[in-house]
């Protein structure tokens, strides 16, 4: 027995005279309401707020109930690894935040001292940010070498050896 037939039987028991629009309208409304509810709750669960370390300190008790994303530079010498678990300190504009990462994957290779890092998780009442996801960008990867001329043009690429392969005619 289909959903439309069940609605029709229920309507007949209640004494309703159903036309075909009502017969199909009720199940469609129920399905759309269910999909809307699932979409709303899914968005609420995956929503995360990007905040700075300063903004976290100003959030009051609301900081403990939200999923957050916090960025900063990894403080040199603060990284302590234990398998896939890592504890470190983020710094931003003179403020620090202790972070404990316990994700399912190892931290990225670019996660090093002075690297820019983005931690996603929640702030605990123990004063530690508990990250479930961690992204890192190497701080010096695209920066010019120390002491290099900032306005210098890159050297031209070396010419390829033409004797490597005979020309086809």
What does this structure look like?
- Helix content is 26%, strand content 27%.
- It has 169 residues and is an alpha+beta fold.
- It folds into 2 domains: 3-46, no CATH class; 49-137, Nucleic acid-binding proteins (OB fold (Dihydrolipoamide Acetyltransferase, E2P)), CATH 2.40.50.140.
- It has a 5-stranded mixed beta barrel.
- A hairpin with a 2-residue loop joins β3 and β4 (85-92).
- α1 (3-14) packs across α2 (20-46).
- The longest helix has 27 residues, at 20-46.
- The radius of gyration is 29 Å and the shape is elongated.
- It starts with a helix and ends in a 32-residue tail after the last strand.
- The model is unreliable at 160-169 (pLDDT under 50).
Rg, Cα atoms, Å: 29 Å
Cα distance, first to last residue?
76 Å
- CATH architecture level-2 label of the largest domain: Beta Barrel
The count of DSSP E runs of length 2 or more, i.e. the number of strands, is 7
Tally of structural domains: 2
Q: What is the percentage of strand-forming residues?
A: 25-35%
- The succession of helices and strands, N to C, reads HHEHEEEEEE
Proportion of residues in helical segments:
25-40%
Tally the helices: what do you get? 3
What is the CATH topology descriptor of the largest domain?
OB fold (Dihydrolipoamide Acetyltransferase, E2P)
Which class of the largest domain in CATH terms? Mainly Beta
Biggest sheet strand order reads 2-4-5-7-6
- List unreliable stretches of 5+ residues: 160-169
User: What is the mean pLDDT?
Assistant: 75
